[in-house]
Amino acid sequence: MYSILRPWLFRLEPERAHALTLRLMQVVGAAPPLAAIVRRQYAMAAQPVQAFGLGFANPIGLAAGYDKDGLAWRGLAALGFGHIEVGSVTLRPQAGNPRPRLFRLEEDRALINRMGFPSRGADFVARRLAGPRPPGLVLGVNLGLNKDAPLERAAEEYAELQRIFDPLADYLAVNVSSPNTAGLRALQAQERLAGLLAALKANKRKPLLVKLSPDLEERQLDEALEVLLDGGADGVIAVNTTLARPSLRSRHAGEAGGLSGAPLAAIRARALERMADKLAGRLPLVAAGGIMTDEDARACLEAGAALVQVYTGMVYGGPDFVRRLMVWQE
Against a cut of 0.90, is the pTM above it? Predict the structure, then answer.
């Protein structure tokens, strides 16, 4: 069905098409009988996973960025995800970068985004997360920094986000690696990252993950991992979108922003391999980026990831994407 609908959906401007799909899944989530029908349609055998002290029904999750404001997560859960990560959410509402800011690279099975953390703010998202939880779902919240916040106040702002979402989420993820907020990636530097983790560790009640960039040099990555080990992080998400442009064919290849989808797979694989080697099982890894097929998901888990997260694969693969990723485990 999705293969028939996708050409029509792809005629829409990408951000508008995404808003439409979110609206549809919001309707599903708001109607329990409808959600139950969808859940039965996409039901599959459980493949339980334990990671950072939580139990997951299966290793497939929806990455941050898909449901930024927590509008549709209850409906999206019916598609079979073991976990969903809402966000990135910023402390105060902000519009993000000017449009157009999301581009499809169909020939490359990729996206480029320069969204810049558009967010309705922490208070709005907190209200969306309160209330009933779909059965068996692990809920994460990805925390971002307002673009008008100086880096010197980053620890304070993330700590306030932590205070708001600790009671609502099963885990929190700290986004210090988006390429679309000026200066944000500087928070991955050793001293700044250590200070940020120290502030968050003081009041930590839920598992705390940190999402790292695929564009770090090996030395920078090794230093960041040491900080995470020493600073009390509970896991690492590998990786965010990349500024690299590896052999793209689409006319949108030159657009500024973070690249995701199939071209990111090889970059993510290298980063994941190095992280797994350096961490040696001391912190769980969540693989994200370029997971477009069941072979991609399997490769990530075999490389040492406990969980995988998808986004662009859902855009191209449609609502049965989770089930197809799980075929190799059945």
Answer: yes
